[in-house]
Write a structure and sequence with these properties.
It contains seven helices and seven strands; from the N terminus they run βαβαβαβαβαβααβ. By secondary structure, it is of the alpha/beta class. The protein has a seven-stranded parallel sheet, sandwiched between helices. β2 (about 30-35), α2 and β3 form a beta-alpha-beta unit.
């Protein structure tokens, strides 16, 4: 029996990158998984197919994280399909690496709306269905605590907000037996932040391990936080960054 057997998980932004790896890992550990996506229905369908091919259960739901109605409907569909909601992974996010003086208001709004506002909206909707033993996991960033790479000012501010959101919420829902933790990746090799990209050199240089991380390394930590052995961990910022913030 897997650690997450009979559990239901919702992973926002689960069609690619870190989110897809998290969805597949939670499914492998026994959870029924719903993923949301904004664009790229084919990619989302591929994640679902991979989970089902391995014997798991999954659905993909189109829901823009900036649309409160769509996000709320995604939570309701997850509950209606699988009978409840035990684990929420707030993974949906974006980064627009630019120096602050070059960042447009629209770009600032986009990062804030997806990274922070979307996290609050879906968490609020999910809490209506969560019972004791529930897990809320936000995907922050190591730059939410310490910024060493130019061009990430606005992005890091949104992830700093996510950090404080998780800490504060852990106090509000702790009496219900629900834990809230913030997983903070460092530079991870994804389509959004490729290890061979223009911004990779300074990020890799800042790590202690002198390499980019893998999506499965983030997913492994999320799976632990989602599982029963993490029941006394809450309000924590758990960094998986190759020593970037060491």
């Amino acid at each position: 029996m897997s650690d997450l057997n009979k559990k239901v998980a919702l992973v926002t932004g689960g069609s690619r990158g870190i989110g897809a790896a998290i969805a597949k890992r939670l499914a492998r550990d026994g959870a029924k998984v719903a993923i949301t996506y904004t664009k790229g229905a084919d990619a989302a369908a591929t994640v679902v197919k991979e989970i089902e091919s391995a014997g798991g259960k999954a659905i993909a739901i189109q829901a823009d994280s900036t649309d409160a109605g769509a996000v709320g409907a995604a939570v309701e569909k997850t509950v209606a399909t699988f009978g409840g909601l035990d684990v929420l992974v707030n993974n949906a996010g974006t980064a627009i690496p630019k120096k602050l003086e070059e960042t447009t208001l629209e770009e600032m709004d986009r990062m804030m709306n997806i990274n922070f506002r979307g996290t609050m909206i879906v968490t609020q909707a999910a809490l209506k269905h969560m019972k004791s033993g529930g897990r809320i996991i936000t995907i922050g960033s190591c730059v939410g605590e310490r910024v060493m790479t130019p061009g990430l000012v606005a992005y890091s501010a949104t992830k700093g907000a996510v950090k404080m959101f998780a800490q504060g919420l852990s106090r509000e829902v702790g009496s219900r037996g629900i834990t809230v933790n913030n997983v903070q990746p460092g530079p991870i090799d994804t389509e959004l932040n490729p290890a061979a990209g223009d911004w990779a050199v300074p990020q890799k240089a800042a790590t202690a391990l002198d390499r980019y991380g893998l999506v499965d390394e983030v997913a492994a930590l999320v799976a632990f936080v989602a599982g029963p052995e993490s029941s006394y961990i809450t309000g924590a910022n758990l960094t998986v960054d190759g020593g970037t913030n060491a």
